[in-house]
Amino acid sequence: MATEEIPPATSVLPEIPVIAKQVDAQTSFLAGKLMRWIENHDWVPDSLNHTVAIVILLIGLFAAASFLYFICRPLILKVVTRIIERTEFSWDNELLGRGVFRWLTHILPGVLIFLASPGLFSSVPWLGHFLRITSSIYILVTGYFVLDSILNALQTIFSRTTAGKKLNLATFTQVAKLLGALICFILGIAILIGQSPLSLLGGLGVFASILMLVFKDVILGFVAGIQLASNRMLSQGDWLEMPSYNADGDVLEIGLTTVKVQNWDKTITTVPTYALISSSFKNWRGMSESGGRRIKRNLLVDTNSIRLCTAEMLERFQDIEHISEYLEKKRKEVEKVNERLEPSRRDNRVNGRRLTNIGTFRAYIEAYLRNHPDINQGMTLLVRQLAPEGRGMPIEIYCFSSNKNWAAYESIQADIFDHLLAVAPEFDLRIFQEPTGLDFRGMGTE
Q1: What is the mean pLDDT of the chain?
Q2: Which of 184-198, 248-262, 361-375 has the highest mean pLDDT?
Q3: SS3 of 349, please?
Q4: Mind listing the pLDDT tens digit for each residue in 69-91?
Q5: Domain 293-339+352-441 falls in which CATH fold?
Q6: What are the Cα distances from residue 103, in Å, to 140, 160, 165, 220, 354?
Q7: Strand partners, 64
Q8: Burial class (CB in 10 A: 0-12, 13-18, 19+), 49
Q9: The pTM is what?
Q10: Cα 252 from chain centre
């Protein structure tokens, strides 16, 4: 029977099957030569010639694999490290740091055993088949770790870019890892049972319902992650407020199935990723990216202290900083309007226009905020009067602090209201508060 010739390679690099056949031929020749050498020596009994040859070949194979793993692999990594350190770009440093090259060199011993075992142990087919299967599984597992390292490196590299900071890269990375693990699992089963992976994929539809049930959260999280990333609804580092899950703090990580939030009390809350699509939440990114943080709070003025300003009050208010021009302008407007009244009615203060202490106080608050160094003057600033609801007259202050840091913001807000509460009596106004026991005792002594 004529021997089958190996077809010539069609490219500079020969195909893998051609390499395998060449290695089989060389290893078969080596095994046969070793067998003949043992047979020519009398120190080995004839009945053990084959066994001794197999043991020597097995020891030699694992010695060669150990040489690749313990000697060649560190040398290769050392050379690669020196080359990478001399390059000007930084992405290869990330590949090295994430262990991509380290896992790649792990494949070398497995490839050696995979290629050499069939030819070396052609006389013991079951041993060659066993070594090829185990080396294939080893290469497959190592290949998955190579993929895992590459994905981690790519995530870190792209997360440093402007576009990468806006995308939820962790979700895409985890999905790719999950798909890679699923493919490796199918390939591993195919190797163990000796069937084509395509035949396994063809029968995968039988388990579709089970897979949908098992990976329900993963599928929902993946869809939610795509929507969050594409619509820029949430990114790592955003301030998330979601009362339904008691989450109020910074987003630490957006995973495939959960989102980790570090609350302001330093506790960690995990929120299902799909819940961010099905439920409402508040993202404070807009405040962080804007020029200020909103201050919106009321002062409750006792309505019994509201009155028309007298000439003496206006003279006293004239010395208050920020409102002297306002008072002068308003006084001229009032006099101009009141000149139209009949002389006999001008003495009645109800007739015509009169300044009030609460109106003057409101003008002072606005002028005070307009001149405050920690208030952003380019954003909305207003002082308005709200409808009273039985607890005094609400004066709402609506403005934005230029400092968005939480501690500084609270300090600015407290300083503003400390000042306003303290100066309200200078306008003959009282701040409303619920009656206390001291108030009742004071009423009894009047």
Answers
A1: 82
A2: 361-375
A3: coil
A4: 999 999 999 999 999 988 888 88
A5: Alpha-Beta Plaits (3.30.70)
A6: 12, 24, 28, 32, 85
A7: none
A8: middle
A9: 0.55
A10: 6
Classified by CATH at the fold level, domain 225-289 comes out as SH3 type barrels. (2.30.30)
The reply to whether 225-289 and 293-339+352-441 are identical in fold is: no
Quick one: residue 260, left, alpha or beta (phi over 0 = left, psi -120 to 50 = alpha)? Answer: beta
Cβ atoms of residues 217 and 257 within 8 Å: yes
Residue 122, H or E segment:
none
> How far is C-alpha 371 from the geometric centre of its chain's CA atoms?
39
Q: Determine how β-strand 239-242 pairs with β-strand 282-283.
A: antiparallel
Q: Which of 411, 410, 406 is nearest to 249 (CA)?
A: 406
180: Cβ–Cβ under 8 A, 6 or more apart, which residues? Answer: 144, 147, 148, 151
Q: What is the pLDDT of residue 234?
A: 86
> Domain spans of the chain?
16-160, 225-289, 293-339+352-441
- Structure-token pair, residue 392: 């005094």
**161, 377, 395, 212: which is closest to 296 by C-alpha?**
395
- Which sign does the torsion angle of CA 280, 284, 286, 289 carry? negative
Both tokens assigned to 21: 């056949």
Distance CA 373, CA 278 (A): 42
* End-to-end Cα distance, the chain: 130
